[in-house]
Amino acid sequence: MEWEAYSTDERADILLEWEEIRATIPDKIIRIETVIIEKTRQMSEEENFIRSCELNSEIHELASVINDLNIWFRVQQDHDAKVHQ
Q1: Which of 15, 18, 28, 47 has its CA at 20 to 30 Å from residue 80's CA atom?
Q2: Helix residue ranges, H only, 23-48
Q3: Overall pTM > 0.90
């Protein structure tokens, strides 16, 4: 449904649930960064070229997830800024 089609109470419930989800994003990013650091360490020590490429691909995928999480984290901030303008 369109945002405006929800009642005020429904909107408040949706925003509360989103804020609870959104609050977990920084911790998820930190956990993924930890994995990236470990994979980067492994890659720097890896002698097998194919495995190095696999690790590099895995790092790239994890970095993409972090980028997506950062976008989602900013969604509410962008919405709040529009509401207050």
Answers
A1: 28
A2: 25-45
A3: no
Biggest alpha carbon distance in the chain? Answer: 60
Q: Residue for token digits 């999480």?
A: 69
Residue 16 has a pLDDT of 92
Contacts of 14 (CB under 8 A, 6+ apart): 6
- What per-residue confidence (pLDDT) applies to 81? 46
Q: Are 14 and 6 in contact (CB under 8 A)?
A: yes
| Tokens (6 digits) for 79 | 């919405």
Calpha distance 76→20 (Å, rounded): 12
Distance of CA 44 to the CA centre of its chain: 26
> What digits encode the pLDDT tens for the residues 23-62?
999 999 999 999 999 999 999 999 999 999 999 999 999 9
For residue 58, the number of C-alpha atoms closer than 13 Å in the C-beta half-sphere is: 17
Q: What would the two tokens of residue 43 be?
A: 């890659």
